[in-house]
Write a structure and sequence with these properties.
Strand content: 25-35%
Helix content: 25-40%
Number of domains: 1
CATH architecture: 2-Layer Sandwich
Distance between the termini: 7 Å
CATH topology: Beta Polymerase, domain 2
Number of helices: 4
CATH class: Alpha Beta
Shape: globular
């Protein structure tokens, strides 16, 4: 399922929160999923999970489904969520993990993957 991009030593997230978020994104047809380990960098969180959706309706659905699934299975609510009104870039902040859900054109514009290219990254793909 996971294919190493830069750091083959980083196999997959060991944290139940990160695993559940990635599974949820895959279940809801999110794609181009990157799990980024920022712990060795001076980042705003320990991990980023970055994904994209083909349309704005799906970005909203992904964000909603992630929040509901994490709450029901792990009992955790996000510390903060923003971007839901326009839904071109929705951020869900779980403090140690930040989930970035992009509309595909918005992801290309902001190039968040390139901004954090020094992070150890694992790509996830639909099977």
């Amino acid at each position: 399922m996971a294919k190493g991009k830069k750091a083959p030593a980083l196999k997959a997230p060991k944290d139940p929160l990160n695993e559940l978020i990635i599974e949820t994104i895959l279940d809801k047809k999110g794609h181009h999923i990157n799990f980024m380990d920022l712990r060795d960098l001076d980042g705003p969180a320990d991990y980023f999970i970055v994904c994209e959706a083909d349309n704005i309706t799906l970005t909203k659905a992904l964000a909603d489904h992630i929040s509901r699934t994490v709450k029901s299975k792990l009992g955790r609510s996000p510390n903060h969520t923003e971007g839901e009104s326009q839904a071109k870039w929705i951020l869900i902040d779980y403090f140690t993990t930040m989930v970035h859900i992009f509309y595909r054109d918005t992801r290309k514009y902001y190039e968040i993957d390139q901004l954090w290219s020094d992070a150890k990254t694992v790509e996830f793909h639909q099977v």
